[in-house]
């Protein structure tokens, strides 16, 4: 598969498909039985949407119209959320390859946005007209929105992956339970997507950036997408109908 085909494939992904891809990359994904696969994506998407609606209602903003200034105010009001912008060559020593992350410490959250990496993600996706027109500021806001959701999880709502049932799978040593951490990522991406009205699902921005930086090969993306689409078909296929003869 050529780079251009892989870019087209990434752009063809809908939000739900991206969320299924995230779920399949969870280290515990193999422990999720097929009949509860939908439960994790659907519940996490629902929780991300509910938090987005609550935020939009409380601040009276229209989706897609929350810029860095409004985010700064929202973070200040959320009691305990600080935002720090760093450069790639900053000597803080963390976040070199991470565009945004949050440090949780004793009831406070520090969101760290790596301006250089976020600008690079903008450069790698600005051919998409809505992204090109809305500028780097909107890309920063999209990343801040994602991290803001994690702050809400920490300060107020509880971690999505802890609120959902653990995956249970029968194994050699009996039933094993494990938490599906990707659930929090799915909810955070959905939240950011809803409040920022992103032109493409947020993970597509990551795929396009990684493809262009040579960090994701077209073949690997193709394989991930093929497996995900196969899985979606399998978990949504209605159970076999038995006819009484
Ligand atoms: Zn996250």
Task: List the topology elements.
Layout: H1 3-11, H2 15-24, H3 34-59, H4 68-77, E1 81-86, E2 100-105, E3 108-114, H5 115-125, H6 129-157, H7 160-163, E4 167-171, E5 174-178, H8 182-196, H9 202-212, H10 218-236
Parallel strand pairs: 1-3
Antiparallel strand pairs: 2-3, 4-5
Helix pairs in contact: 1-9, 1-10, 2-8, 2-10, 3-8, 3-10, 5-6, 5-9, 6-8
The structure holds zinc ion.
Characterization of this structure:
Residues 91-96 have low confidence and may be disordered. The chain has 245 residues and is mainly α. The protein is built from ten helices and five strands, in the order ααααβββαααββααα. β2 (100-105) and β3 (108-114) form a beta hairpin. α3 packs across α10 and α5 (115-125) packs across α9 (202-212). It has one domain (3-236). The radius of gyration is 19 Å and the shape is globular. Helices cover 59% and strands 12% of the residues. The chain has a three-stranded mixed sheet with strand order 1-3-2. Strands 4-5 form a two-stranded antiparallel ribbon. The termini are far apart. Zinc ion binds next to α6 and α8.
Q: What's the quick description here?
A:
The chain is about 60% helix and about 10% strand. It is built from ten helices and five strands; from the N terminus they run ααααβββαααββααα.
Keywords:
two-stranded antiparallel ribbon, three-stranded mixed β-sheet, single chain, binds zinc ion, mainly alpha, about 240 residues
């Amino acid at each position: 598969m050529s780079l251009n085909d892989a870019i087209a494939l990434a752009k063809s992904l809908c939000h739900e498909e991206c969320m299924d891809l995230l779920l399949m990359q969870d280290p515990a994904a193999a422990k999720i039985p097929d009949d509860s696969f939908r439960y994790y994506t659907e519940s996490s998407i629902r929780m991300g949407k509910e938090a987005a609606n609550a935020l939009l209602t409380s601040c009276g903003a229209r989706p897609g119209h929350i810029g860095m200034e409004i985010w700064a105010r929202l973070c200040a009001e959320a009691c305990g959320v600080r935002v720090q912008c760093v450069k790639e060559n900053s000597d803080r020593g963390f976040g070199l390859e991470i565009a945004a992350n949050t440090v949780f410490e004793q009831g406070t959250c520090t969101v760290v946005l790596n301006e250089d990496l976020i600008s690079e993600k903008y450069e790698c996706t600005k051919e998409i007209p809505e992204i090109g027109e809305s500028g780097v500021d909107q890309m920063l806001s999209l990343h801040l929105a994602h991290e803001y959701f994690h702050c809400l999880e920490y300060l107020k709502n509880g971690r999505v992956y802890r609120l959902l049932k653990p995956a249970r799978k029968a194994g050699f040593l009996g039933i094993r339970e494990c938490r599906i951490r990707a659930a929090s990522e799915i909810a955070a991406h959905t939240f950011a997507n809803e409040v920022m009205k992103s032109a493409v699902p947020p993970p597509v921005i990551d795929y396009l950036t990684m493809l262009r930086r040579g960090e994701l090969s077209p073949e690997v993306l193709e394989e991930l997408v093929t497996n995900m689409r196969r899985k979606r078909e399998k978990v949504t296929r209605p159970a076999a109908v038995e006819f009484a003869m």
